[in-house]
Amino acid sequence: MSKFKYLFLALIAIAVGGGFASYGDEDDEPGKTGSDNVTNVNPGQPSDNNNAALIIGTWSRNGQFIDPEDGNYGYIFRADGTCDLFGSGIEETTYRLSSDGKQLFIYDEYYDEYDSMNIDKLTADKLVLSDPDEDYDWTEVLYRVK
User: Fold this and answer.
1) Can you give the residue range of the structural domain that contains 128?
2) Domain holding 86: CATH number?
3) What is the pTM of this model?
């Protein structure tokens, strides 16, 4: 009888432990949870919007190759969802696009969250980004480096 009692207690402990493990850290940040409003950009994966394919490449303020030492700000977006930020150095991070292709999310390791930017215009040669927050107005125009 005591063997069944210990077996029953062990099964209860496993069930309770599994229940607690299923309630992990839930984060509502776009892109961090793989939610429906974010497109993962992966090579060979079709996308519902053209921005996923158009954004891949090197972008800078003056359309010239980016040298981290000259202060020319820009991005290199890769098909696997990684990107490099250039300015006063190089920061390697990840990015995601909203499913409609109108927002760009770039991961900020310092704050452990995705920063969002509106994609106002994206063509083969020009990328215009703006801040989605109405209280802080900025626009950034970048050109594809060829």
Assistant:
1) 37-144
2) 2.40.128.370
3) 0.63
